[in-house]
Design a protein that fits this description.
This protein has 248 residues and is mainly α. The protein contains 9 helices and no strands. The protein has helices spanning 2-16, 18-51, 56-74, 81-99, 111-130, 138-154, 173-185, 193-210, 229-246. α1 crosses α2, α2 runs antiparallel to α9 (229-246) and α3 (56-74) packs antiparallel against α4 (81-99). Residues 1-21 form the signal peptide.
Length: 248
C-alpha cells in the first residue's frame, strides 16, 4: 500500500511539476544503486575481516559499510516489507559472521552459503523495486564480482543465483566482465577525462577478475598465480566510487 501511494504521488508530481518528479525518481534510483553497492561492500569487508586475521580496521570498515547501507535504505521511501526483511536478515548474517571465533572450525561449514544467500536475497529484493537491469548497476556488478573473488580467495566458494541467469546475480566473471566491458565502451573518454581514468582502472581490475576461474572446482586461479583479494577489493571500491562521481 505504501509503495502504491508513493508511485501515485510521483505520477501526480510528473503532471504538476515535471522537474520535481524527475528529481524524486532520480533520488530513488540513486538509493537503489547505493543499496546494491553497500550490501556488496559490507560482505567484502566481512570476508576481509575473517580472511586477513581479524584486524580491527576491517571490522570498523564492516560497521561503516553496514551504516552506509542503512542510510541508503532510509533514503528510499518506497521500501516494501520484503526489502526491509531482507535487509534485516543480511545485516544479522554479517554481524553473526564477524562474531564467530578465530579458528577455522568456529565457523559452521554451511555458513558461507547462508551468507551468499542473504546477500543474493537482499539484492533480489532491491532489484524488484528497481525493475529491469539498468545502466546504474555497473558499479554493483563490479562490487558483486569482488565479493565472488574474495569468497574464492578466503572461504572457497560463492553461490550465485542460478535461478536468475539473466541478471547479474546469477552470473560470474564469464558473463559479467564482457557485460561491464560493453557498458564502459559506450562512455566517451575524449569528452570526459574521468571516464578515461575509469576505463584504465577497469582494464587493470578485470585481469584479476578474469583469472578467478569460477568454472573450476579446484579453487585455483586460471593462471596459477595466487589470489590478490586486498588489491581486487581496493580497486573495485575505487572504480565504483569513480562511477558514482560521474552520476548526475
Amino acid at each position: 500500500m505504501k509503495q502504491r501511494k508513493w508511485i501515485a504521488m510521483l505520477m501526480l508530481l510528473a503532471c504538476w511539476f515535471p522537474g520535481l518528479a524527475s528529481n524524486a525518481q532520480a533520488q530513488e534510483l540513486n538509493a537503489l544503486e547505493r543499496m546494491q553497492i553497500h550490501a556488496n561492500r559490507a560482505t567484502s569487508s566481512l570476508l576481509l575481516y575473517r580472511g586477513e586475521g581479524f584486524q580491527k580496521a576491517h571490522l570498523q570498515r564492516l560497521e561503516s559499510d553496514i551504516q552506509a547501507l542503512d542510510t541508503a535504505l532510509r533514503s528510499f521511501p518506497s521500501a516494501n516489507a520484503e526489502l526491509l526483511a531482507q535487509h534485516a536478515e543480511l545485516t544479522a548474517k554479517l554481524r553473526e559472521g564477524a562474531a564467530f571465533g578465530y579458528q577455522e572450525d568456529d565457523m559452521p561449514w554451511g555458513w558461507p552459503l547462508q551468507m551468499s544467500k542473504a546477500l543474493r536475497d537482499f539484492l533480489t529484493a532491491v532489484r524488484s523495486q528497481q525493475g529491469a537491469d539498468m545502466k546504474a548497476e555497473l558499479p554493483a556488478k563490479v562490487e558483486y564480482l569482488a565479493v565472488q573473488y574474495l569468497s574464492r580467495a578466503y572461504v572457497g566458494s560463492f553461490e550465485t543465483a542460478r535461478e536468475q541467469p539473466e541478471t547479474y546475480l546469477g552470473q560470474d566473471e564469464r558473463s559479467l566482465v564482457p557485460s561491464i566491458d560493453e557498458q564502459l565502451s559506450q562512455l566517451d573518454s575524449a569528452a570526459n577525462p574521468a571516464v578515461a581514468q575509469l576505463k584504465t582502472r577497469w582494464e587493470f581490475l578485470k585481469v584479476a577478475l578474469e583469472d578467478m576461474n569460477s568454472g573450476n572446482n579446484s579453487f585455483n586461479t586460471a593462471s596459477g598465480r595466487p589470489f590478490a583479494p586486498i588489491t581486487v577489493d581496493r580497486h573495485a571500491r575505487s572504480l565504483s566510487n569513480q562511477w558514482m562521481a560521474l552520476s548526475p
